Amino acid sequence: MRRQDHFPPRPSDVGRTLSAVQRELRERAANLMPRLRRADGTTAATLGTSWAWLDGLGNPVVAEDSITGGLARPYLQLGFAPARYTDWLATTSGVFEDIHRSTFGRMQPYAYVSIGHTTDDPSTTGQVQLTVNGTAVGTPTSVVWGISAVTVGPFPLPGAVTAQVELRVRARRTAGTGNVRCAVLAASGIES
Fold this sequence. Notes:
Strand order of the largest sheet: 1-2-3-4-5
Structural class: mainly beta
CATH architecture of the largest domain: Sandwich
Shape: elongated
Oligomer: single chain
């Protein structure tokens, strides 16, 4: 049992006491969730039931999805390719010709590229190939009549972080008179 002198002396002091308790609980809770602060005192990162890295305005730049796990931010692009192979870019060249190209700043150390490919008629054959900064990755993939796909990679991306990297999907016809067609179906940088 508490002694009489442990209670607030006046009823009006109850509000101040509750405010002090609430403030103390907030301060203790803040100490339970580690925060990384910038020199100006703003929060740069939080760690609690989930984690987040924040910009100078307090917006999440990179954050964990606290409900299902995985990544909440940044939102990652999802690419689409034409579904009809007749809409895919084509070549009739007998030497490798650039069909698709991407230039970007390297962030992850590895990448993969999925390439859909086909020909316009059963008598035509060809090949598709991926290059990184002009160097072929692996051996060319044979292309025949009928829609198919190949995933190239994972393969290393050269250079330091933010170094410019250029990927090219090239194709050529090796027999017949029809087109050799291809489309990038998916591509992503990935971790080691």
